[in-house]
Amino acid sequence: MFLCSHFILTQPVTFLVKHQQRCQEMEFAELIKTPRVDGVVLRRPFLPTVEGTLCLTGHHLILSSRQDNTEELWLLHANIDAIEKRFVGSLGTIIVKCKDLRVIQLDIPGMEECLNIASSIEVLSTLDSVSLMYPFFYRPMFQVIEDGWKSFLPEDAFKDLESMTEEWRLSDVNKDYSVCSSYPPLVAVPKDVDDDTLRKAAAFRHGGRFPVLSYYHKKNGMVMMRSGQPLTGTNGRRCKEDEKLINATLRAGKRGYIIDTRTVSVAQQAKARGGGFESEANYPQWRRIHKAIERSSILQESLIKLVEACNDQSHSMDRWLSKLEASNWQTHVKEILTTACLAAQCIDREGASVLVHGTEGTDSTLQVTSLAQIILDPACRTIQGFQALVEREWLQAGHPFQQRCSQSAYSNSKPRCEAPVFLLFLDCVWQILRQFPCSFQFSQHFLVLLFEHTYASQFGTFMGNSASERSKLNLSQKTVSLWSWVNRPQEVERLSNPLYEANCLVIWPSVAPQSLLLWEGVFLRWKRSSRCLDEAYDEMVHIIQYNNKELQNKVNNLRRQLAQLETEEPLLQTP
Amino acid sequence: MDHVEQVRLLERFSNKSTSGTLHLTATHLIFVESNNTATTILHHHIASVEKLSLTTSGCPLVIQCRNFRVVHFVVQRERDCHDIYSSLLRLLRPVSYDELYAFSYNPKQNEQQREEGWQLIDLGAEFERMGVPCDRWQLTDVNRDYKICETYPRDLYVPITASKPIIVGSSKFRSKGRFPVLTYFYQEKKAAVCRCSQPLSGFSARCLEDESMLQAISKANHNSRFVYVMDTRPKLNAMANRAAGKGYENEDNYSNIRFQFVGIENIHVMRTSLQKLLEVVGSRFLSVNDYLLGLESCGWLRHVKAVVDAAIFLTKAVTVEGASVLVHCSDGWDRTAQVCSLGALLMDPYYRTIKGFMVLIEKDWISFGHKFADRCDQLDGDPKEVSPVFTQFLECVWQLTEQFPQAFEFSEWLLLQIHEHVHSCQYGNFLANNQRRREELQLGDRTHSLWAFLLREQQNYLNPAYCPTYADTHPVLEPSTLPCHFKFWRNMYHQFDRSMHPRQSVLKNVLTLKESNCQLEDTIKDLETVNFSTVFLIEEEEEVGEEVTECCSDTERTVEGSSGTERKESYSDLQGTYGAKAEPAVVSLEFGVARMTC
């Protein structure tokens, strides 16, 4: 179980004071009406109640009993999704609901203090100004061995591709983000297609997201591409350059599949708003398949309902099952996994190339392309490879993390662009991990960690909505990358799956409802102490490591000793 | 007719099929595929055979098994299909015990081994382990000849103060003569768990001896001034029983009792519920919503939770309050057995070991007369008597093993294997409805014991995460009763639907590693001795080395079952490492054929 963010636990209490001083010099000072209150009682899941001093800083809510034996609470304001106030006499209570779905309670003596604290938290947790966000203030307390901002450069990824095929090139047509604001400066496109064609195709695609390479299947040379919807509109506009671009990815005589993540009717409706889909007539070499992954606003509602169901204290089985059903969460998981399997199947089984898109091409499209790669490509199942996948298919590909993750399941304000698109992806990965527990180098801890950091983090990795926004914010200079933290040896070890054995095969998950489980590690995490599950897990890790390290080493050492004795012995034995 | 060729076996959840030859033996139905893999089904496992209407590809035959396997054959010629169908109908309805497999099953054991197998579990010793007889509880010989109650065992434990007339009087006032007796003694608080059947109270009848009996139970425990009486039925059912001269204890007549209904439904509700569940999860192209709605409407998990809730109530009363509890339902052999045994499992770590779990089943289920023959439909009988009460108990245990992964010495494979054999009629343990009948059938002389077989194979059923010291810190388990912690038991109800299971098994992997750890430890010991005594036994070292590599590569764990190879195969599929064969597995039917829309 992790509490708050990781570095937080390692910070000494004295740091608190310095931190406060620094904050007071800044704009936060006026937002914090009461910086500290004594005698506050903290109640949180699975930990004993603590009484201590509550401090508010620009970025943290801190509660410390100033005793060595109790754990301090360091909560990022950014992690706070909603608060509730209650009063009994002069005793105020603030219920803090976090984006990682934890709920904690603070009992604060004094009505005024309580009101002040509550209003400060409300303001501090909803600051709009990006430049005030914590990653800009955070200084790592660990030594950065490898700068995560430089770990996954598109140029490096392309080098791998170049070693496999010469049919693709890296285009810098988007180097100033003018062709597509949500694309990175460098994208992989068919070699025979020039930048001018790309520009024209971009004008025909939603958000300028012209078809680009997402994945190259080494086994048979088939590819997966992704894009935004074509802007055919009601009168069936076409674009020769777009047709040329995607046809250039087909081998002679081969047909490809276009996987539209929307249902036919949704895609039809999109025409009225200038969008649409590729018609058979204009794209005769492609067969179109429609799937039904929901739009992001529906996903957010689903998350809210699911979390509500999980927090229901009722002991009625019927109520639980009907609420779980009504949330539709597992349906989304199944739909996304099914579509990803379909894409993977087209590529691996049918030997056909695939183009995936929905409407914008920044949500369901990325869920499908990234999951298909997990299924097809063993490299994506390693710790490094998974980071590269997230970097490539989510961050570089322009998933608007900041918009999608600014609120979580408890927020009272009306969702605008919030949606658990990435969380659903992680849930799907977890489902596959459950079914192939030995084929992933990482454990579910890694997935939970990513979930936490997309919603609130000291690292800059998930800030901004696109590569262009991140470059404007100069994140790589001003903030620390999550990958810098993750790729330190001790963290890699913590996130590793002890059962991992490289499996070079394609892994087909079962998507039967009976095979899909509720992700307890996220949704029931605060309902019941996972201590016995964790201990059982540790025991297994122990068995495995004891085997791999200690015993094997010991046997090898003894063998070696024996071999040495063998060579010495003849001298003794020969008379 | 002994075999039919060119039969196709359709996969349950996809469009795939394999063809092969169908053989029918005296005890088994065997389907041999062209590549020689065989699916073997014991006749006793077959719950129903259905001949569907003729199709262009042949005549379909659907066989449903009690271990939840469903096989769908297509036989080319209708005549053949009809022959198989009618042979099966004849074979799967044995009318006398002598026809059961247990009497012909011969596992190549000598007489001594067989006898030893039956002596493995000794209930007298078990009561001694609990600390009974003691100064408050004694062994009574009233039922030595099954005179007082023919569905109880011979040896019964009652309060010292309960005299023979009290016992006899009380038994006359209870359904089927099942008077209150001790089933578990919680030594720490000297609190007793007793069981019985409903009183014949009707609307007003009372029985002084029965009242004295409860008084005696209460008096035997100095920790508490009262004894809980748990009626495991819903109140409405219990009240309805009064009209038939049965019913429940009137608190006014019994001094010092606290009466409580806990509301577990009856065998008919449970039967229908599981049937519905199986219908839901058996449908192809099941959507998540239909699945969850089906889980809800069939009520199965609600019933499972009700049983666990009742066991928790019992456990709390005994361990926290130190009160004695009397548990009953109508006849005291279904819900009562569930609640008493599950409660004991929560209270006493011994029952969470492999041997202890067998003792528990032997005590609360077999000896106290759970009607296995009727409930599991061993002989052609009344279909209304059939009910998955024991299956439900096993599921409750499974739910607990999921919540407390370190507390149980056994993994779910033990539960599945026991379930398999409760229906296989291959061993004598579960045959017939009560001990008296078992003695008449001379099962101890004529059949083999399942427990001996399971204990011999016990390394297959070990839970690698089991921590024996867990019992010291958690002697009493306190499970969560939140509905979200109850799960659908896929490995039970889809045991044979391979495409639904994880393709790699953590359990199996860790077990193998653990075994290899032991072997490596031995190797180290050997090597150390060799090293100390210097070189002179070089060959031996090499031998040891070979041994180790062999053990490490021995990744195929097989669990022998009633039905030979197929069993092995299905287990190794579920447990096996899939390193090499992950690929061709089925994804889902939906894109077996990618649906094109344009």
UniProtKB/TrEMBL annotation, chain A:
Entry keywords, A to Z: Acetylation, Cell membrane, Cell projection, Coiled coil, Cytoplasm, Endoplasmic reticulum, Membrane
GO annotation, biological process: negative regulation of autophagy; phosphatidylinositol dephosphorylation
Coiled coil: 541-568
Chief location: membrane
Assigned GO CC terms: cytosol; endoplasmic reticulum; perinuclear region of cytoplasm; ruffle membrane
Superkingdom of the source species: Eukaryota
Membrane topology recorded in Swiss-Prot or TrEMBL: Peripheral membrane protein
Domain Myotubularin phosphatase: 148-523
One GO molecular-function entry: protein phosphatase binding
Pfam families: Myotub-related, PH-GRAM_MTMR6-like
Database matches in InterPro entries: Myotubularin, Myotubularin-like_Pase_dom, PH-GRAM_MTMR6-9
Compartments reported by the entry: Cell projection, Ruffle membrane; Cytoplasm, Perinuclear region; Endoplasmic reticulum
Similarity section: Belongs to the protein-tyrosine phosphatase family. Non-receptor class myotubularin subfamily.
Name of the protein in its database record: Myotubularin-related protein 9
TrEMBL record, chain B:
Biological process according to GO: phosphatidylinositol dephosphorylation
Matching InterPro entries: Myotubularin (IPR030564), Myotubularin-like_Pase_dom (IPR010569), PH-GRAM_MTMR6-9 (IPR048994), PH-like_dom_sf (IPR011993), Prot-tyrosine_phosphatase-like (IPR029021), Tyr_Pase_AS (IPR016130), Tyr_Pase_cat (IPR003595)
Cellular component GO terms held in the UniProt record: cytoplasm; nuclear envelope
Domain Myotubularin phosphatase: 117-493
Active site: C329
Binding site for substrate: N266, I267, C329, S330, D331, G332, W333, D334, R335
Keyword Lipid metabolism carried by entry: yes
Keywords: Lipid metabolism
Keyword Protein biosynthesis: no
GO molecular function: phosphatidylinositol-3,5-bisphosphate phosphatase activity; phosphatidylinositol-3-phosphate phosphatase activity
Family recorded in the similarity comment: Belongs to the protein-tyrosine phosphatase family. Non-receptor class myotubularin subfamily.
Protein name: Myotubularin phosphatase domain-containing protein
Naturally occurring in which organism (per UniProt): Oncorhynchus tshawytscha (Chinook salmon)
